[in-house]
Amino acid sequence: MIGYTTALFALLAGTLVIAGHEELVQCTPGVFQIIGKADCTGFFMCVFGKKVEMPPCPPRSVFSSSANVCVPKGSMYDDCRKTTEGSGGHMPLLPDLGVFPHPTECQAFYNCSVRYTHGIPRFFEQHLVECPYPQLFNTETKQCDHFENVKCGSRAEIKDGCQYRSNQCPVARCRPCSVDLPSCIGKRDGINVHPAKLWSPFYAVCYKERTIKVEP
Ligand SMILES: *[C@@H]1O[C@H](CO)[C@@H](O)[C@H](O)[C@H]1NC(C)=O
């Protein structure tokens, strides 16, 4: 196995010498990777350490190395660096910029530093993470933030905590989420009866239709 790995490295080293700077792509043997081309026209896939060039991105789109997909050119997801300008040097894609909003959900975002290596959780995809309820993802600070500070724009704003992906039942059967996290949709601010536990001392504290607290 070591011999095989070494041979692959040697093979890749050979490829690196022949290829132009655009193709300075190193695959780690045994690791599945997607590596964007420096000019953002497409990407390589590393399958068992072997570099496979994928078809180019469709017209008017560029490869986003953070989102790992082709995205509309010039859109908010376009993280292509203008490497062709100036000295023409190859600028490495910095991992700290790998935080992107989910296109349709305000509480979810992609964090490229987060990598699921032991299987992707149900309802999630690679690099997809979620803010803790009731926080939302702030596209200006690129962080989870208090929901009142976040402008969701066209991204859907989930108010019911049970609709956050992380609160959805990951197995065949679960204790209903609403038992622990009753919805505050349509409720006034402040103390409200717990709809699943009427006539009990249980209550929910609501604020702007978010469940802030469940007592006792
Ligand atoms: C992204 O993930 C990294 C590594 O887990 C973490 O340090 C960083 O705070 C995360 N970024 C956000 C915005 O959550």
TrEMBL record:
PROSITE patterns: CHIT_BIND_II. It comes from Mya arenaria (Soft-shell clam). Keywords: Signal. The keyword Phosphoprotein does not apply. SUPFAM superfamilies: Invertebrate chitin-binding proteins. Residues 1-19 form the signal peptide. This is Chitin-binding type-2 domain-containing protein. InterPro entries: Chitin-bd_dom, Chitin-bd_dom_sf. It comes from the Eukaryota. The keyword rRNA-binding does not apply. Pfam families: CBM_14 (PF01607). Residues 77-154 form the Chitin-binding type-2 domain.
